[in-house]
């Protein structure tokens, strides 16, 4: 695929107009919920509700049949009862619509009869050259177009994580998760459902070409086209990291996948091999999948596996050090040059081993400026982990201590927090090394939201930060391997 | 130890009066921060600040020397410069004070000279029969006495997790963590620092006897009295679960621990063996330590390792199933009796395999009442995992659809949410089986805070819930083993 517009997913992810089937003025219907979410998030394209009786649906002009539409929309969104999906798809084809999302369930995931129904819609799609996602999916979200075509009414922030998921929940139910934890959102998310037509492979290619996507998350219950999957992933991984979470490998997982999307999962070790060959980083949980994507999208690729840890609390530092060990991260001793430069900033209770445990800093601002600059200049380290505990309240007290007038304090606190966070983010860019923060605090703390919003990823525990750094290192390794094998392709 | 009052920690955790050294009217000093935290949290005991010059400290009458105090306080809290700690401790001994917390750092953790200083204070303590925690610790918190003697000003909610930690951060920096994630707090937390006198073993015995503590968390960098540790833990584990997080086992972890508290960590496998012998559940991260304690303190002990999963989202259900496999949890097929009872509640898109994936429920309240009741009655299952997605907004829409007057909706929503959460909690109690929830939502969602506050633990991901259930099952196994070996003690 040379450009994104050639992807079968292009007009599904970026439609200028949508024919909508299944919304009515009965707000409790699933279709109404989805249309409600689309309207609520501010989609700016044109929507044509199709409804046999209602003249207007949610205050938009409705049409009794798809044939009556004044033009051919980019795609059809189908949230109808199972038994009328096939005839609707046929009518869409006759109208000239070439893309569809079929949300309706009751197909291959419910046994033999459902399988027959699925074959029927596939045949209709083939006849009319319709490419579609689903059935039994939740829809699509393209936050950069304000298109949230899922039933969860929630503003998904535009972000850099592109997602293809065999569970719709891991898209829609993650809007809030990514937003409240990291201040992040999706670039584009595809719920694939039964993958009767468009599948994971198409999504990998689309997201690989999508300019808003910096890291790709895959939730996998089974891969249907093994060879094509590996080829697509290898190609995309060279320039964009892919993280996969696969649950079908265990006995319990396999059974659950079968009931969920009718998919036949394979042994865990097989999938492990597929991911390795494909240059894909494997995550072991939903949390980890998003942690990895967050770090991979926010940080430069490290040159190696040597990190330095900056902390002012010993326990979190020790926990991070221990977790680094388990994630294949080395913590080298600091060079004499670095030790000399650090000297003036370290109180007598502190330690300049790695972790660098300051215990406290006389000037709290050193923690965001002078100290990380020195540590990033250390030639023996490729990346940095930083524990954050600072609070705006601390700055406030310090300002009060300096007799700053009460009415100026709020503004000054805001300005200081902002500058410190910006300094940290600028250091990551200027030194071209990953800086990964960790903290037990949430975005309610102004430093945490400030750092995250300026581009420094902050994860919620030392272990999760160390594992995410491990994923960055693994991505470098996988990418090098892919480029080596590419060169070999030319040689042989 | 027969009663809690005989513990050397009793008057440290439950002091009626405190002599405070190191607070002044300079608010940026560490000692002032601690006194500020104590006062802020509403401690109701008597405080005697000792300060050579100030007549009043933070508006409390101060005394120039400890000898001048009008009575002998229960303990001394020492946050002074390193060089005057020894003489202060001696003066306390002369006054008749028999308990102390020494927060000051600069002892065994900073090398030879510091070790000599530590020996000196140990000798003084022995001479005057003073028992103390520290030095180089952060203090003590007893939320049930509103005593937060740490430098983080934050109201720690009274909770059931008792903690002993070789890092103060894992106490103070967890007030916010436990509160915002789980709506929980500590019963009592001890920061141990260098453990020059009172150590982890004393804490285990104290927390074992503490009536407010239902689960014990230990953060360990090294165990100093191996044999006593095992004995104390074995005794306490019989009636109260203990969870330990040990970070000294890796090379990086070992080095970090040495700089942090001057402790000599041992090989990971050795500690693994110690924990097993002691009946202690091992956690692999800070998050996991608190997840486990939360679940262990909130749930009954399961009869075995068979669980049923209730969900209305396939992906989170499949992820939970897969994680159960990795945590040694079986998911048995449901009996025909259960299947018959479930029938009317499961729509045609749902699945009655285990996970029970409802996809949706016509009456959302069934999810909190009829369905979990049926699943808890299943004789083949010992516990239940439930995925929560419900939102108050959903109930609000449903009520609006039923034409409930606008002004009554808020009250009714609150009442309904409350009743559903209470129903779930009551089902756990009446069936005496653990019910563990999981959700990607936070306490901002009224159902999540409602469930947590009524006593149903809700963890933030399927994997973490499955691992916590694994910890419950492991506790049952460990406890049985301890009781068996107890019987053998009598036989041999």
Automatic annotation (TrEMBL), chains A, B:
Keywords: ATP-binding, Ligase, Nucleotide-binding
CoA-binding domain mapped to chain residues: 11-107
Gene3D superfamilies in the record: NAD(P)-binding Rossmann-like Domain, Succinyl-CoA synthetase domains
Lineage: superkingdom: Bacteria
Pfam families: CoA_binding_2, Succ_CoA_lig
An example Gene Ontology molecular-function term: ATP binding
Official protein name in the record: Acetyl-CoA synthetase
